[in-house]
Amino acid sequence: MNKFKVVLKKSFFNNIKSPAFWTLLAMPLVMLLFGYFIFQQGNDNSQSKIAVISSQPKLAESFKKFERPDTLYISKYSTESAAKKALVKQKIDGYLKITLDNNHLKFTLWNTNQSNEINIAALQMAINQINLILQTESLKLSPLAVQQITTTPKLDQKTSIVKNNHLVTQNQNKIMTKATIVMGISFLLFFFLVCFMSQIANTIGREKGERVMEIILSSTETKWHFLGEVGGIFLTMLSVVTVYFLIAIVVVLKFHQKVFFKNMFPGLTWQLFLSPEIIFTILFGLTGAFLYLVLAATLGALVNNVEQVSQAIIPLMIPAMISYVLMIGSFIKITPFVRICAYIPLISNSLMPTMLVMGKASELQAIISYLICLGFTILMSYFSIGMYRSNVLVYSQKGIWSALKSALTFHKTIKVHS
After folding, report:
1. What's the total number of domains in the chain?
2. Last residue of a domain, one of 85, 115, 150
3. What range does the domain containing 76 cover?
4. First to last CA, the chain
């Protein structure tokens, strides 16, 4: 056990000293700063200035009541020629000309290809409101009558999921926010998985190719070396995930009251990260990650040199890709095949959490699927230790698949003799 701790610490500290680790840590901070910079630039430059030209000054002034953060109305230009000169000099982004045609107001907007983007929907809403005010004044309608006519009913959408043969109503916005978080976590874990699978396979392949493995295993038992290498990589990955998780909570606490954040992620609070769906996503993701790392280390022991590592881990990418394809497809339709795949290890790690958050699977089904994944991980870890022991010091010139076949045969022989 002491040798295991030594290998674990060595692997962990070597990994956190690597540039790749600090690049992964810095990535969310760089993305946040970049996004904040773009957002601020957008806020600074997105306000469009629209000159309102009308023979009735009061009509032009009335547009100021409908100004927005992205739209500013200017009434100082009394003639169209003055507005055109201002438009050419880019002092304004467009001008709105109001004319009377057959006792009806006609609105015409002029702008250029160099103008800031104009919020046409907001402009149309302002025009509708002003036109409504003028019409109600001409018809001498009371403000109460106008309010009753213009008030539109609000549609609230409630989505029910079936739990224990009962309908449970949930807010659709919160469901979609949870689904977005689940997909984001699954995508990040997949990205980390690709990086760290290559890293552990490269480490073992390099040590084997440089004949360093003989020296290491002369003083360390194979089992503890294997578990130490896998554990060190897993702790490194866990450290990155923890930092990302804390950054996500800080961002939510900082911006959850902002209007733009509420529109992007309705119903998102830091408590949402403690919901069963998110917890299952993290459990499935980390357990599945450990399983993939175990298999990557086993395949890394089959190569003769580091150049063969990329070829060795390709088979592991197939179930990972299938899992993410089925995860995306589960948003559209759940077939019996997809339901079966949600219980298959190496595939269930991202599929089952998605089905759970969409209400297509119960918490009991998620627990069963996770226990299957956990049991399979333990069995494969035990099996991989034997494979690692029987093949890490064997050099074959017949290729990876031949080495795998020989390792399986040798492993069976050892078990029979034991």
Report:
1. 2
2. 150
3. 47-150
4. 23
